TrEMBL record:
InterPro entries: Na/K-Atpase_Interacting. The lineage of its organism: Eukaryota, Metazoa, Chordata, Craniata, Vertebrata. One of its GO terms (biological process) is regulation of sodium ion transport. It comes from Rhipidura dahli. This is Sodium/potassium-transporting ATPase subunit beta-1-interacting protein. Its main location: membrane. Keywords: Cell membrane, Membrane, Transmembrane, Transmembrane helix. It is a multi-pass membrane protein.
Length: 140
């Protein structure tokens, strides 16, 4: 359920790398449950290997959002450099007040706007870190 919840919020933020990872996590968990119930050793091995990769991925996400080792949360790495979308929590976190400012310059596209976010109870990067930490705890 935690992976499904995370999948929803990554879809809202158009973060394609986490969407792909969450999708694989959901599929492998289903295979792992099936392998455990039916006692299929190959499925259990696949689940075990995937769990190690899943923990590694979540450690990477924690390092990414905390900007460890030269990583920057301002890059488009999570969207495969396809778009400029960011974490959904950036603008919609608990207590956040989102203000959209339309540019008044002539030459700027009509649908382009600047977003100002203030008053967040907890910053979005810490929410992402909490999500990844929960995934690691559930995996262990």
């Amino acid at each position: 359920l935690a992976a499904l919840e995370r999948q929803i919020f990554d879809f809202l933020g158009f973060q394609w790398a986490p969407i792909l990872g969450n999708f694989l996590q959901i599929i492998v968990v289903i295979l792992g449950l099936f392998g455990t119930i039916q006692f299929r050793p190959r499925y259990i091995v696949v689940y075990t290997v995937w769990t190690a990769l899943w923990v590694t991925w979540n450690v990477f996400i924690i390092c990414f959002y905390l900007e460890v080792g030269g990583l920057s949360k301002e890059t488009d790495l999570m969207t495969f450099n396809i778009s400029m979308h960011r974490s959904w929590w950036r603008e919609h976190g608990p207590g956040c007040i989102r203000r959209v400012v339309r540019p008044s310059s002539p030459g700027i596209l009509e649908d382009y706007s600047y977003v100002s976010v203030t008053g967040c109870i907890i910053d979005f990067q810490y929410l992402e870190v909490i999500h990844s930490a929960i995934q690691i705890l559930l995996s262990v």
